[in-house]
Amino acid sequence: MQDFLQQTLSGETPQQLSGENAHLRWSWWDEGIIEFTPHQDTQQAIVVSAGLHGNETAPVEILNQLLSQLLRGEKALVPRLLVILGNPAALRQNKRYLRCDINRMFGGRWQQYEDCPEARRAWRLEQAMETFWQAGDNLEVCWHIDLHTAIRGSYHPRFGVLPLNLREWPENFMQWLGAAGLEALVFHRAPGGTFTHYSCEHFNAASCTLELGKAQPFGANDLSQFAAAKQALAALLFGEPLPQSGEAPRRYRVSQQITRLSPAFKLHMSAETLNFTAFPQGTLLAEDGDKRYFVQQAREYVLFPNPNVASGLRAGLMLVEDNAHNEALSG
């Protein structure tokens, strides 16, 4: 296999399902799922996923460049690695999804949906992740990096979203996120149906969704914007030096979720509202029949505002700053 992305987009099973070179063995598990195993023993097992939304192509292109170096034998591999292109059918059509948003279906939530390609795919990805991590014992590093781009522009073009986690985040994981060029980190305070929440909750993985710029079609991405993220991934996979991190990411935590409850839902924000736009206390954010969402804190920042989601799904998150952490940065 010469090009994992092109093989996946072709929709065909590769003629060769496994192979090896001087540094590693590779095994094609399923459409868009490939495992790499270094010849030397390792206590590191890492999942890198991208393309759960089919119109978020920049991370897919970055990841494929790194995988091509592995497949050609140009780079040594440090950890066991599982690579997942989450929604190949949507990638082929440059659509966010075909029927349903796969990144709301994990943790068995796919069973609550009608039978559709994304529900079947979510189940398959859960199986793949379980198979991968069950093969390792006493892992020193168990990470899941899920690569995305945002629908809207952002005051922080590169940021990370971390799932609810009742344990301390590993220090080397947090350092890696800073080295990847992220300008902000958002911490969830409630469970969810995302791929990263699934890996964190079920496998104790250090998991983060990386949002890298704005969604563009294949070939229209300026990948130079994400050089730090690519270099950080190369450091993780190949054992190369981490890029020098600049200012540590600012930290936010989720204060409330805006949920679309019915077709009457109305979001009081323009289509041009950027992620991390600030709103003062008392601002009416959205309404849905008798339900109204207001800014509750002195200042809240919006993330992922999207009035066009299906009923019952998140139409936006409101954030507050982690003032103690951010003041320490500026001090």
UniProtKB/TrEMBL annotation:
Chain positions recorded as Zn(2+) binding sites: H53, E56, H148
Keyword Zinc: yes
Enzyme Commission identifier(s): 3.5.1.96
CDD domains tied to this protein: M14_ASTE
Cofactor note: Binds 1 zinc ion per subunit.
The entry's keywords: Arginine metabolism, Hydrolase, Metal-binding, Zinc
Span of domain Succinylglutamate desuccinylase/Aspartoacylase catalytic: 44-236
Source taxon at top rank: Bacteria
Domain AstE/AspA barrel-sandwich hybrid span(s) in chain numbering: 249-321
Gene Ontology terms for molecular function: hydrolase activity, acting on ester bonds; succinylglutamate desuccinylase activity; zinc ion binding
The protein's required cofactors: Zn(2+)
Enzyme class: hydrolase
Record-stated family: Belongs to the AspA/AstE family. Succinylglutamate desuccinylase subfamily.
Main function: Transforms N(2)-succinylglutamate into succinate and glutamate.
Name the record gives this protein: Succinylglutamate desuccinylase
Source species of the chain: Winslowiella arboricola
